[in-house]
Design brief:
Two copies of one chain form a homodimer.
Chain A lengths: L7 H11 L15 H29 L2 E3 L2 E3 L4 H10 L18 H14 L1 H20 L2 H12 L3 E6 L15 E4 L5 E11 L8 E9 L10 E7 L1 E3 L5 E4 L2 E6 L10 E13 L6 H7 L1 H29 L23 H34 L2 H32 L11 H9 L8 H12 L2 H21 L4 H29 L3 H5 L2 H30 L4 H18 L2 H10 L3 H4 L7
Parallel strand pairs in A: 3-6
Antiparallel strand pairs in A: 1-2, 4-5, 5-11, 6-7, 7-11, 8-9, 10-11
Helix pairs in contact in A: 1-2, 1-9, 2-3, 2-4, 4-5, 4-8, 4-9, 5-6, 8-9, 8-10, 8-11, 9-10, 9-16, 9-17, 10-11, 10-12, 10-13, 10-16, 12-16, 13-14, 14-16, 14-17, 14-18, 16-17, 16-18
Chain lengths: 593, 593
């Protein structure tokens, strides 16, 4: 069975040596000193590796059971959930006035990686609650906040998000669920929602569903969608639980993975709901928390990749098979360990350079979220809005590929469920789909975000890369050749692709949209290239100063060089595809397929 | 639930318009006239789409059950197996003297695609039998052939291959299973084998296990391995079944996919075995059928990709979601079908251009096998030996990726087992692993096949591409620009990679081996590029002649242009990686990971 170790040293390196969080003037960051974050991460590391990780396979094998309207989570989930609540983890980055600890989002994100990596299906129960609570925090009335948040911040009550219906997922304008206004100001919500993660379960006393629905008579399409709070149990005036609401789970889905999380069909049958935010502004309310939710899903890509990589690495060091062609490495054994073989190395380095680069990317993005929310930094807000589809789409596509590579290292054993490597790929697969399928992320990036505010956010990104190179290149020939020059080339490829879209997208938008997936991926590579350049610099600096763990820093530099030599050049291929335009993509009539 | 339609028209196009099989002077090919192959393929199409495809999901959901030493296959498998046997399909390309129909391997391969695509787990029962029978055909004594082949050619008895042991898969020299010679000329085989596909089941009266084992006192390592025939039931002199042999299934594995096929732990406890071929030459005996087996697995990559693509395409035409940005295509409906969206097109064209290209590649390779075996063509034998790891590794890696792309088109529904798209990816995953994991294929290609016979086979391949271009380029500016020039560039990239290996592999073999996976993939792309160039020519010729279905041929040309513009340029990225050498791949000590 796989094991999991929290990558605390690596998280600390990114937080303190690369991002220098405690030196930042973002409100609340001064508290994030290295000793403090280390203590938090160590504690989270214990809980996740010792309690959650051992339940990962249990959740996969048992799954959730649906009996007489009740969903039972896998053995051990309830106890573990109590431990998570007792540790105060769900409220780590929530406001103190509702029982949270008011830590910056970047720390919540660092901790979140450990939770996701150790047990994604389990962590979704609290993840969805966090998302729903954030929506109430952003859009709820004072009374709503007081009624729901104290219980949701602690996960005494959990939350859900209800968007999809059988005939519409991406295109929510076709939604049929309706919410009829009542005299008392509440609404009666009727309709069916599908793919509702954590929709029904036995971990909490109450479940607070956030449901998108249309108020009859409102605008057609997506502009007539509103957001409602629909509790499983109504709440009495004294705060105690009242009658069961007309919201019920109709069935749970059999899925490819994340079996430990209940994916429900939710039937709303005249259920009492309360408008959250303004009428007909439901999509806007939903979207204010979309950045966080999508970054959270991007993190799942990294998290599953890292969990799978840790086990693949251990197996590659342990499994004896074949001999090093350049000379036996384990003369006393019947064979050398797998890790001597160049193609195994290649696969391990792909994984290592991805997960460490992605970790820096996610944490850097989290600091942008903090700068935007805590520091009212509009530039940071614009930049993270631009990067969100890249984080979600690129990291989940790549994260999935990495779990497949990790599984491959196990050979035949990778295909046998008992060894646990299949679960990483099956669980990682969903992250490419939910919270906006990756094709939709690419469309959002190229069709919306690139041109947002006159394109100033993407210009700011290129300017940032340019400034970084200007400040740091030209001082060390080796760093220039192995790190900065490749980053410069890749960034130029990305700019050329943006230029192609500008010049050819106007006469035919399909010229841009046919390249959207490639653009998202090349953007992701440039971001990871930038992260690796920053990490290489930090490592080089520590080595020059003779501070810290020299092997750790030399390994960082070597891994940076690998990424630059073997991964970053993918931008050229993406550019070639993009510049081939829409013609070959759109040539066929639908009937000709 | 997914459905499957046999791609008869496309197979016919490749067989007759591209490969012109009935014009070939390979013995037996004259029979392969278009009407005849169409009749065979239509018949196979009916059986596979109507009988095997509907059992695919059944097999996945029920799996095999192991009770008291007996393995029960899923509901319906037994009946379907009887229908397959009654149709004579297992013996299609087997010699007439043992009850087969003596058809060329290329026809068996075309039919095999339909079987694999409709139900891979089911088809493996006959596939393994075919492999075992081929080994007996090639290496058995006359008596062995007469004893086993008539029953195996009809699948009255099925076969298995036993290589892997718990501690060794790739590195079979560490094998522990032993075979002790007996006075009567037989051997007593003792040991444990794992991952034995079709090892035990209820579809046949007897199971003929081919088992690799070591005769005590023989050479150490891989040179001391011999191959044995170990029947489940011993066979009396009159041909009737005798006593149960000491070969028993210990358990069946829970796997990620191919649930309908029983993957067994096989325990041999002094089982009676008969030497097949020469003592200590077991690996050689195994390898003579490896080319066929590996091409068969490569075909599974194509087959699963095509089955998944067919369903993704149907869904993309049916599912209404969003609007075409260039103008509404379905004004009377609430939304346009998915297929209007450029990124959905891109994913569909990736799949279409891969499956059709791979189909041509597989069938062309099958003609090389026929030329080698039926025509004693040593050049064809050398070429197909070179291409075998490419077929196996490239087509299964890519085939898997294509099933993931097909699944993605379904959005959330792709993740729900009920919709069946997950099964294609889970089933396709095994083909990257078994019959030599793809890293081993890459190693075989770069470490062995490239330099085989002084490198003359790879030189012949380049010469063939050059000759093809010389004969066909320079006559049509559009074909040159969209088809032949891209092929020429890609072929040059491949040659440059080979040159890099020659120049840098001697001083450090890791410089070659670090690029082995990239080389295998770029070789695959060049092969598919060559196939697309041939198909484009054939289509162009038919259009010029005004013969056949013009839309079909125009679609071929458009798909060829897509492959050349969007897929083939991957060779440049692979070359960049290869030319970066071993340095970044091998930089870290194992402890530094």
């Amino acid at each position: 069975m796989p094991s999991y170790t929290a990558p605390v040293k690596d998280l600390q390196f990114v937080l303190h040596d690369v991002l220098n969080v405690s030196q930042s003037d973002i409100p609340g960051y001064a508290e994030l000193e290295a000793d403090f974050t280390a203590a938090v991460l160590d504690e989270a590391g214990k809980l996740t590796s010792q309690v959650l990780a051992p339940l990962n396979a249990v959740g996969d094998q048992e799954g959730c059971r649906f009996e007489n309207g009740v969903v039972r989570t896998p053995t051990g989930f309830k106890d573990a959930f109590e431990q998570v609540k007792a540790g105060g983890w769900p409220g780590l980055d929530m406001p103190e006035e509702y029982g949270g600890q008011n830590m910056p989002y970047v720390l919540g994100t660092a901790v979140g990686e450990l939770f996701s990596a150790s047990n994604q299906a389990f962590t979704m129960y609290q993840g969805l609650t966090h998302g729903a609570a954030s929506a109430i925090l952003a859009h709820g009335t004072k009374a709503q906040k007081q009624q729901f948040l104290p219980k949701m911040v602690t996960c005494e009550w959990t939350g859900t998000m209800n968007l999809t219906e059988p005939h519409c997922g991406t295109d929510l304008g076709m939604m049929r669920t309706k919410a009829e206004p009542q005299d008392d100001g509440s609404y009666r919500v009727t309709g069916q929602k599908i793919f509702i993660s954590s929709g029904e379960h036995d971990l909490a006393d109450n479940i607070i569903h956030l449901v998108l629905a249309k108020i009859p008579g409102g605008p057609a399409g997506i502009k007539g969608v509103s957001l409602f709070i629909v509790p499983k149990f109504l709440i009495n005036e004294d705060g105690s639980l009242g009658a069961r609401n007309g919201a019920a789970c109709g069935k749970i889905e059999e899925k490819m993975g994340i079996h430990g999380n209940s994916t429900c069909v939710m039937n709303y049958d005249g259920a009492t709901g309360y408008l959250l935010g303004e009428a007909h502004k439901g999509m806007r309310a939903m979207f204010t928390m979309m950045n966080e939710a999508r970054i959270g899903v991007g993190m799942q890509g990294l998290a599953q990749a890292d969990a799978a990589y840790q086990n693949a690495l251990a197996y590659a060091k342990d499994r004896l098979q074949g001999r090093d062609v350049t000379g036996t490495k384990n003369p006393d054994g019947p064979a050398d360990p797998l890790i001597v073989h160049p193609d195994v190395r290649r696969a391990l380095m792909d994984q290592k350079s991805f997960t460490e680069g992605a970790r820096a990317f996610i944490l850097w993005s989290a600091t942008l979220i903090d700068a935007a929310h805590r520091g009212n930094d509009a530039a940071a807000d614009g930049l993270v809005s631009l990067l969100t589809p890249v984080i979600k789409g690129f990291l989940t596509d790549q994260g999935y590929d990495m779990t497949v590579k990790a599984q491959q290292i196990y050979g035949g054993h990778g295909y046998i469920e008992e060894w646990g490597m299949s679960q990483f790929t099956r669980d990682a697969r969903i992250a490419m789909i939910y919270e906006g399928a990756n094709g939709v992320q690419a469309l959002d990036l190229v069709g919306r975000k690139l041109a947002q505010d006159g394109g100033k956010h993407v210009m700011a990104f290129f300017e940032m890369v340019k400034t970084f190179l200007k400040e740091n290149a030209g001082q060390d020939a080796t760093l220039d050749a192995t790190i900065f020059d490749p980053l410069k080339r890749a960034s130029k490829d990305l700019q050329a692709a943006g230029m192609y879209f500008m010049q050819n997208g106007v006469k035919d938008p399909n010229n841009a949209l046919s390249g959207s997936n490639d653009f998202m991926h090349m953007f992701g590579h440039v971001c990871l290239g930038l992260m690796w350049a920053k990490m290489a610099l930090a490592a080089q600096k520590a080595l020059s100063a003779g501070s810290g763990d020299a092997t750790f820093h030399e390994t960082k530099l070597a891994t940076a060089r690998y990424y630059m030599a073997r991964q970053l050049p993918a931008t050229a291929l993406h550019l070639t595809r993009i510049e081939s335009g829409a013609q070959t993509v759109m040539a066929l009539d639908a009937e000709a397929f």
